[in-house]
Amino acid sequence: MFDTMLKHLGAGLLVAGVCLAHAYAADYPTPVEGDYIAKGFNVDLGTAAAPSTNHAMWYLNFSKQNERNAPLSIVIDANTGKVEKVIKE
């Protein structure tokens, strides 16, 4: 049962990450973000939190098996859904 719960959680996080990436690309249209998704890169979703301030963040990264990760990370405020910063390497 626990395995099933983890699979559903993982699938939900993946869907959320893809939705956020598409929403980001729509709000900030540059060829780069859309190109990563169109080229088959996965959207990876990481989380971070600062309990003392109730601040939480989602980190979106783009990866593809057997290739280098895309040189782009998007940091989103998990409380508001707003983009905090874009990190381009």
What would you say this structure looks like, in words?
This protein has 89 residues and is an alpha+beta fold. The protein has one domain. The chain is 38% helix and 34% strand. The chain contains two helices and four strands; from the N terminus they run H-H-E-E-E-E. A four-stranded antiparallel β-sheet has the order 1-2-3-4. It is elongated, with a radius of gyration of 14 Å.
Strand fraction equals 25-35%
Strand order of the largest sheet: 1-2-3-4
**Biggest sheet features:** 4 strands, antiparallel
Distance between the termini: 41 Å
Quick one: how many beta strands?
Answer: 4
Structural class of the helices, strands and pairings? alpha+beta
Low-confidence regions: none
Shape: elongated
Q: How much is the radius of gyration in Å?
A: 14 Å
Break the fold down into its secondary structure elements and pairings.
Blueprint: H1 2-27, H2 31-38, E1 42-50, E2 55-63, E3 72-77, E4 83-88
Antiparallel strand pairs: 1-2, 2-3, 3-4
Question: Quick gist of this model?
Answer:
With 89 residues, the chain is an alpha+beta fold. The chain has two helices and four strands.
Give a quick set of tags describing it.
single chain; 89 residues; alpha+beta; 4-stranded antiparallel β-sheet; 2 helices; 38% helix
